[in-house]
Specification:
Number of strands: 0
Structural class: mainly alpha
Strand content: under 5%
Largest sheet: none
Number of domains: 1
CATH architecture: Alpha Horseshoe
Radius of gyration: 40 Å
Low-confidence stretches: 2-19, 216-224
Distance between the termini: 163 Å
Number of helices: 10
Helix content: over 70%
CATH topology: Serine Threonine Protein Phosphatase 5, Tetratricopeptide repeat
CATH superfamily: Tetratricopeptide repeat domain
């Protein structure tokens, strides 16, 4: 009995150490920018321990580096239900993959999901802002950029983001001016049209009154009471 317990513990430790070895080797190679070498170890690490969120995250990143987006999506999807405190990270990574392949709708969905998991997860705001720029949703993009800079006031991208926001806001202002001008021009044209119509209407009314006055003599036929005398 005692031998069986020891054997079981030994087997568990062996498997655990093997899994840790695969993960640590994969992580080391990934950090050395060797994704093609790291991928095998990380795939083994996921197989060894299907509950290891870190292994899934690293494997997904490596798949992205190897330009294998479909596999990255599959890995992140597997990780998301078990990610726990890393849920925002996993969801944001899913957003990144969809952004890279041009699926703006799914990218925004997962960035929003990441924010739902953790409202202070700054990377998700930045990713969603970039997605909204691509989708033409500029006003909401500015809101996300502002929230990102609130969370990351010392971001090394701050200057570029502020420049972009200033450009977008200037476009908003120009569009608003064009809208106001168009509305004013429309009102002016409407007023001119009304004046013209009123003038024409008044002129026609005057002409009708004059015609009525001139025709009044013909309407009254004088009566002759005498007899006609023919020579």
């Amino acid at each position: 009995m005692k031998k069986n317990i020891i054997a079981g513990i030994w087997l568990f430790l062996t498997v655990f150490c093997y899994a840790q070895t695969n993960l640590s080797r994969g992580e080391s190679l990934m950090m050395q920018n060797k994704p093609s070498e790291a991928v095998v170890y990380l795939e083994n690490a996921v197989s060894d321990d299907s509950s290891n969120t870190k292994a899934y995250l690293y494997l997904g990143i490596v798949y992205e580096q190897l330009n294998r987006p479909n596999e990255a999506v599959a890995v992140y999807r597997r990780a998301l239900p078990i990610a726990g405190s890393s849920s925002a990270n996993v969801a944001s990574n899913l957003g990144n993959v969809y952004f890279q392949i041009g699926n703006n709708e799914m990218a925004e969905q997962y960035y929003s999901q990441a924010i739902g998991f953790n409202s202070g997860y700054s990377k998700a705001y930045l990713g969603r802002a970039n997605t909204r720029i691509k989708a033409g949703n500029l006003q909401n993009a500015v809101s996300d950029y502002e929230q990102y800079l609130t969370l990351e006031p010392n971001s090394n991208q701050k200057a570029k983001i502020e420049q972009l926001m200033a450009l977008i806001k200037s476009e908003f202002a120009a569009e608003e001016r064009r809208k106001v001008f168009a509305e004013e021009e429309e009102r002016r044209v409407a007023e001119e049209r009304k004046k013209l119509l009123d003038s024409v209407s008044a002129s026609l009314h005057s002409a009708a009154d004059a015609s009525k006055s001139l025709s009044s003599g013909a309407e009254n036929v004088e009566q002759y009471d005498g007899e006609f005398v023919l020579d």
